[in-house]
Write a structure and sequence with these properties.
336 residues; alpha+beta; five-stranded antiparallel sheet; 18% helix
């Protein structure tokens, strides 16, 4: 299935079905009003909703033109949003730039933080930031949404609780991160509202591109209309999504609608630590990686973080070139 949430007068929006080619939509209301209602009752509602989805795709159910600009993030708010760092190459770059080694534990024990989930922003909403000096950055990622996951679920079985996949822009304020981490209590002000691509999909919609609990397709990022990154999300992913879900559930139950992010998608490529699109590489999923490369190479960064009016577009296409999730397309707005 492909699902979206249209904005309406409520906090949680209206759950919509979206055709496989993203051209048509219809309400899911005869089965479920909201995405959270569906996830809370997945075992009872998924089958009748899928029957309605198949009818929409076959033209047996009347639909209207799908408009992604009407969308919230698929879950406009969630009980739980935790972001991992499954691509250790990204962590290695950041640490190497400041002369630090990656601890051995990072290769077998995932990094993860719990972010704010009460105020996600829509895929076409502005990124509102109070001050340009905060070091505004995008982070292109993939996320999974789970049903209820019992505490202590192991790596082997955690993948069975993954119900949906989404794309994420995990907005980061890089200028605030060092001070927060120095306090020893993790991110807070440096991680404002995240956004998600308009359409969430069940794993079967990815066909052969979903295996080993990874998405084996390039994640495409355009920055100010120029291709900035196309790393393959299935390459250099040290921890797959089953392992990330199990990590999150080690000491707690995860409620239905828990979102687990992959962290910034990052490939090592032909060099030790990647290269830009203009140099024949697959590029990057955040500005911070470019700055780390520049620091390692030149002793200091030269690429600026985002400014007022800058735009980012994040999307993934299938092997035939068709968009799977729709796109996140946002601009920075400095709130004076």
């Amino acid at each position: 299935m492909k699902l979206a949430t249209y904005k309406n007068d409520s906090r949680d929006g209206q759950l919509m079905l979206v055709s496989r080619d993203l051209t048509l939509t219809c309400s899911a209301a005869p089965v479920a009003q909201t995405m959270q209602q569906l996830l809370d009752n997945w075992d009872a509602l998924a089958e009748p909703l899928n029957a309605r989805y198949q009818a929409l795709c076959k033209g047996e159910l009347l639909g209207e033109k799908f408009d992604p600009q009407k969308c919230h993030s698929p879950l406009p708010r969630a009980y739980h949003w935790a972001d991992g760092s499954a691509y250790v190459n990204h962590v290695e770059l950041v640490r190497r730039a400041r002369g630090a080694e990656v601890p051995e534990s990072f290769w077998h024990d995932p990094l993860m933080y719990q972010g704010g989930s009460d105020d996600f922003i829509g895929p076409y909403d502005d990124i509102n930031v109070p001050d340009e000096s905060m070091g505004i950055d995008f982070e292109a990622e993939i996320a999974v949404v789970t049903s209820d996951v019992p505490m202590g679920t192991d790596d082997e079985h955690a993948g069975s609780f993954i119900k949906l996949l989404m794309l994420v822009n995990d907005v980061s304020l890089r200028g605030l991160i060092p001070g927060e981490l120095a306090k020893g209590f993790g991110f807070y002000q440096s991680k404002p509202s995240s956004s998600f691509a308009p359409v969430a999909v069940t794993p079967d919609e990815l066909g052969d591109s979903w295996f080993d609990n990874k998405v084996h397709l390039p994640l495409l990022t355009k920055y100010n209309n120029e291709l900035f990154g196309k790393p393959n999300a299935g390459v250099d992913m040290t921890f797959n999504f089953s392992e990330l879900v199990a990590h999150a559930a080690r000491t707690r139950n995860l409620g239905a609608g828990t979102i687990i992010g992959s962290g910034t998608v990052s490939n090592k490529q032909g060099t030790d630590h990647g290269s830009a699109i203009v140099h024949g590489g697959v590029g990057y999923s955040c500005i911070a990686e470019v700055r780390m490369i520049e620091t390692i190479r030149d002793g200091q960064p030269s690429t600026a973080f985002m400014s007022h009016g800058d735009k980012v577009r994040i999307e993934m296409t299938d092997v035939a070139g068709a968009s799977i999730f729709g796109a996140i397309e946002q601009r920075v707005n400095i709130e004076k």
